[in-house]
Design brief:
Layout (H helix, E strand, L loop, with lengths): L2 H20 L3 H7 L4 H9 L18 H14 L1 H21 L2 H12 L4 E4 L15 E5 L2 E11 L7 E7 L10 E7 L4 E5 L11 E11 L3 E2 L5 H37 L1 E2 L2 E2 L4 H29 L5 H32 L5 H8 L9 H12 L9
Parallel strand pairs: 1-4
Antiparallel strand pairs: 2-3, 3-7, 4-5, 5-8, 6-7, 9-10
Bound molecules: flavin-adenine dinucleotide.
Flavin-adenine dinucleotide (FAD) binds next to strand 1, strand 3 and helix 11.
Length: 383
């Protein structure tokens, strides 16, 4: 069976599951800002929260391209499920797979393989784009580290069984050279305050307060003060998956507005027959397929370990975010007043898609990656 055929088979099975199981509750997830437990269990059962986890730990061991397809299809029906899958199955899985000790792999990758959810806590109230400046501290105390500090905008927090936490182990002036990554179980020392976000509602995005959290020294991932490199390595790969979250939203908005344009009549004919509406639909289709091509190309570069994949991953994320915002705005225009109402799904897509220009590195940060790559200042860690 060719790779293409197997990827398309994967897509059909995720689509069938998503439409049957997630689609009927997608609106409720957004309204109530939470995912019902039975839905989480069914998604976990399919392995969609453990995308990259190797089979020996119970995961599906998907390639980047396969992960893109799964996240795209989940996001086509629910942004929340798409982002939970992305964070747990790729952003959390990546550092564990590539940098954790065998004992940590055994413990935490197996948890993901069993359907548990992980969260990735890097951003702080002080610093998102400037993550090298984080101030959450991990202080050595005998066989343990004691963690104190505050994280914000952390996806999956309300559902998470454990957290990967970036903390300062060096001096503030050491910036990225003084950051380490720890894996921390959910416990009473972490105060979780759920945030009311504009979009991606139901993703469990929260502020976290770490109050004297004691972590065994063995829970350090990789080497001390080398955490920033691990984070960047994962993000370089992961950005293309974040882009595929946007692609799923774009696909859904396109399908819905095209259907509406064929059905809605104005001035004696379906609006799809008016040239200006046709122009909007054509522009949407171009932006949709151009984003898809960039994402799949970037994913293939990652899977083939080509040296310039960080740049392609960032280009795919930037283009999808920008074109995605344009596409959903046009989709709303096609639906007129209905598109602006809560009855239509487009207003949810409109709120969701904007996040792709911010999360996992803003559009401005993606352009910085492109320039730094062109100047030879960024290299993937594992080529
Ligand atoms: C829904 C959602 C989910 C998230 N989930 C997570 C998560 O799970 N884990 C996590 O760790 N973080 C998460 N984040 C945080 C996200 O990664 C940050 O919001 C993002 O990196 C931007 O950081 P900031 O919000 O601090 O903005 P800032 O860094 O303060 O940026 C503000 C503006 O200034 C611009 N800017 C900043 N520095 C520069 C510069 N040097 N040159 C030019 N322009 C610049 C930015 O591009 C932006 O336009 C999430 C955010 C959202 C919205």
């Amino acid at each position: 069976m060719s790779v293409k055929t197997s990827t398309e088979l994967l897509r059909s099975s995720v689509r069938e599951f998503s439409e049957k199981t997630i689609s009927p509750v997608a609106k409720k997830i957004d309204e109530e800002n939470t995912v019902p437990d039975d839905i989480l269990s069914q998604v976990a059962e399919m392995g969609y929260f453990a995308l990259r986890v190797p089979e020996e730990y119970g995961g599906p061991n998907l390639t980047t391209l396969e992960s893109v397809v799964v996240v795209e299809e989940l996001s086509r029906v629910s942004g929340a499920i798409g982002i939970i899958s992305t964070v747990s199955g790729t952003m959390v899985a990546y550092p564990l797979i590539h940098y954790a000790s065998n004992e940590l792999k055994e413990e935490y990758l197996s948890r993901l393989g069993k359907g548990k959810i992980g969260a990735f806590a890097l951003s702080e109230p002080c610093c998102g784009s400037d993550a090298a400046n984080i101030i959450t501290k991990a202080e050595s105390d005998g066989d343990e580290y004691i963690i104190n500090g505050r994280k914000t905008w952390i996806t999956n927090s309300t559902y998470a069984d454990f957290f990967l936490v970036a903390a300062r182990t060096g001096r503030p002036e050491d910036r990225h050279r003084g950051v380490s990554i720890f894996v921390i179980d959910r416990s009473n020392c972490i105060e979780i305050s759920k945030l009311e976000m504009m979009g991606y509602r139901g993703s469990g995005t929260s502020e976290l307060l770490f109050k004297d959290c004691r972590v065994p020294k063995e829970n350090l991932i990789g080497e001390i003060n080398n955490g920033f490199k691990i984070v960047m390595d994962g993000i370089n790969e992961g950005r293309v998956i974040t882009a595929s979250m946007g692609l799923g939203v774009m696909q859904a908005a396109f399908e819905e507005s095209l259907k509406y344009a064929k059905m809605r009549e104005s001035m004696g004919r379906p609006i799809i027959e008016h040239e200006m509406v046709q122009s909007m639909i054509a522009e949407m289709k171009i932006k949709l397929e151009a984003s898809r091509l960039l994402i799949y190309k970037a994913a293939e570069k990652i899977d083939n370990k080509e040296y310039d994949y960080p740049m392609w991953s960032s280009m795919a994320k930037y283009a999808t975010a920008s074109w995605g915002v344009d596409l959903v705005r046009l989709a709303m225009q096609v639906e007129g007043g209905y598109g602006y109402s809560k009855e239509s799904n487009i207003e949810r897509y409109y709120r969701d898609i904007k996040m792709i220009e911010i999360g996992d590195g803003t559009n401005e940060v993606q352009k910085m990656v492109v320039i730094k790559s062109l100047l030879g200042k960024i290299r993937p860690a594992k080529v």
